[in-house]
Amino acid sequence: MKKKLIRLISIMLAAVLTAASFVVTSYAADPPAITAEGAIVLDLTTGEVIYEKNPDEKLYPASCTKLITAILVLENLPMNNVLTADAEVASTGGSRLSMKEGEKVTVKDAVYELLIGSCNDLAVLFAKAISGSVDEFARLMNSKAAEIGCTDTHFTNPNGLHDAEHYSTASDLAKIAVYCMKNATFRDIVKCVDYTYTRGEGSGKSGTVETMKNGNWLLNNTTNVMYVGNERRTAKYEGCIGIKTGWTDEAKGCLIAAARRGNTTLLSVVLRSDGSSNGSYERFVDTIKLLDWGFANFRTFSAMRMGTELGTIEVKKGEFNKVRAVLGDDIYATLSSAQQDGAVTTKVTLDESIRAPFDKGTVCGKLEVFIDGTKTAEYKVVTAEAVKEGGILSNWGIEDSAAKKIFSTILTVIFAIIALFVLYIAYLKIKSERKKKKKAERARQRAEALEKQRLEDEQLFAQMPEYEPEQSGGYDAEASSETDGED
Questions:
Q1: What is the pLDDT of residues 224-245, one digit of tens each?
Q2: How would you write 203-248 as a 3-class SS string?
Q3: What is the pTM of this model?
Q4: Which of 140, 266, 348, 358 lies 20 to 30 angstroms, CA to CA, from 397?
Q5: What is the CATH number of domain 31-298?
Q6: Measured distance CA(308)–CA(290) in Å, rounded
């Protein structure tokens, strides 16, 4: 019974996985058959891989190597610098500018010629200018590749000339291409159909104006006709924006290409394309097939724009007690042609609080993106403003603006109390003065009354006759006293 139950569960699980697989694969038509041994197609905006064939197989990259050489030039050398070729540069073989020893060239002209004309001698010129030698520059290339995220790449030279130890993968080259395409100058160069320049001093034809055509037929070729499946067409591809071709006898046809249609930009990498009598055609055929399939079956959906407000967060000990939380990047999702916009959902998680001081753009949460319920990406939520440390009242969540009002009110009240006290003291003083004046007035009036009374009394007494005692018949007090004393 137990075995039957386990078997039943296994069958049900297999059915669920099969159904899930069917749902995923049913979103897009089957990809085309290509001759390339290694290939990958991704949405350049989201980084979402929509097709891959042996993406981690180590293959020779040929001149696709020059992507990392060019980006190191753009990151390390000023464009107006002038470089001088030495004997090693002049002796470099393969596709080249044919520089002479002692010839001078600006970094700007050289980096355009490196990518558009795939000049091997210029790659050596840059390697020596940046690192002093080809070997040292190869170490820098490998370090940069590792920094970008490459795990199966090893470079021994700056131009892709064959070396058994010089290899990469479709996946790693896609990572390098994505990194390079973030550089505006690089993007401007690789989309150029051609480049006109003036040969420099020491070239033997100083001052001669020359034009170099881009070897990427997807950009400009309306002459060479090829079959893409059963369709006869030229190589020029609608919306192509670059980026680099490669070819050696050992590597066969290599091509990294990007194209934009509407809001969707796809990047394709094909390595070792060689399914026809002319392998140089086949890399373009493979790429056109993959890009056509990608644009027909997938699109880039703009789900949310950078700066979208997602809520507010409590600020502790700050001049403000709240800060807006906003999306730190644009959010895009890669959808199949069968999926509606509503397939994309998001979940926002914000920190409970953030302590001041902090700068604008400080991470304060995350936004998760789901497509049909499956998490596909995670983005940073950041603060919309910088917040300085607040005053003493910020410990209780009171903003500095409110604290200023409180202190202002307190000061106003204090000044009002002081003013009232001063007025009260003044009032008491005035009242006391008035009281003193009244008392003095009453005293003066009493004094005047007494003086008046005294004067009146003096006048009265002055008018009274003087008293004179009688000479006889009068009362003799002394005698009477003596008489009265006898008994």
A1: 888 998 899 999 999 999 999 9
A2: CCCCCCEEEEECCCHHHHCCCCEEEECCEEEECCCCCEEEEEEEEE
A3: 0.76
A4: 348
A5: 3.40.710.10
A6: 35
